[in-house]
Amino acid sequence: MWRPETLDAPPGAPQRRVIPIQALTPAEDEVARQMQICNACRYCEGFCAVFPAMTRRLEFGKADVHFLANLCHNCGACLHACQYAPPHEFAINVPQAMARVRGQTYTDYAWPPALGALYRRNSLVLATALAAGLALFLALAAASHGGLWHTPGAAGFYEVFPHGLMVALFAPVFLFALFALGMGVRSFWKDQSPGAISPPAAGEAAHDALRLKYLDGGHGEGCNNEDDRFTLARRRFHHLTFYGFLLCFAATVTGTLYHYAFGWVAPYGFDTLPKILGTVGGVMLVAGTAGLFHLHRRRHPEHGALEQRPMDLGFIALLFLTGLTGLALMLARGTPALALMLSLHLGAVMAFFLTMPYSKFAHGVFRSAALLKWSIEKRQPSRLALGDD
What we know:
By secondary structure, this protein is an all-alpha fold. The chain contains 14 helices and 4 strands.
């Protein structure tokens, strides 16, 4: 079966093209059902971008459902405001329905497609076991090289693992992770067909993503977590985690620049830019992930998909271990514990990179793409041409 992608175009406009109708999965069909009801009610229109985007549609195909699901920030405000929420017979629970489709998005757009099933297997146990296994392997390698417990010389951790070896181990994994995520979001973007990206649209999307605008509940008081009380804790812990991760990444980039551009070889002093960025970022990352773990464990089960909780907690745990072992490695500098702490830290970092394309990390990439699509779409005339549109 085929259907037109757009309504009849006016004279002089490009010819319309056709795309195949794709059958919806049960999770997608549930989002479409709830959006039809919400489109008639529109009580939650001011809560977030999902509902204004919803009103620009009368039908909800697969691409529309995936777009709206990734535009949703799972703040929970609409669930507590909805007169049709369970136990009403309509059983409207937008956060939970959207969460299930988001998980499906990551699987459907995974690259290579055969690895999409890893999203369903990613868990807290797997993440920590992988980090521990890699750390053990590195610890055994360090022990066979020069001992796991000895006072290092002037070269610091490069005495344990040479610089070239660490680059050879980590660079391919990191580049593959970026490429796999890029290919996935590219396929997602092609299915959305949002139109041309303008500087104002890109700027607004970046602003909304960096501020986590839609974690304020639509009124600035924050999300719901374990009940109907509003809290800004989730937004603040997300900010600590996100910007802590960016600072740690900036420390790595700065250290790389020091090494290759200026010939300044690690270890660097505590007053240098890489060390300052890494220390501040590590503290923020540990604090943010600890807070998110606490909130996640207390979150009301109707606010999300329980089957995705292991993946969420596994991602949080790996970020926490990365930040914590990084800080421990900094404190172990010049002590006999350096080789052991370096093995633990590199094990956590490698586990994070290996699972990054198939973990909850993807939600930031797909959500940013959805925010950009919404910023483009809202600047375009409505295709419905109803009333004042």
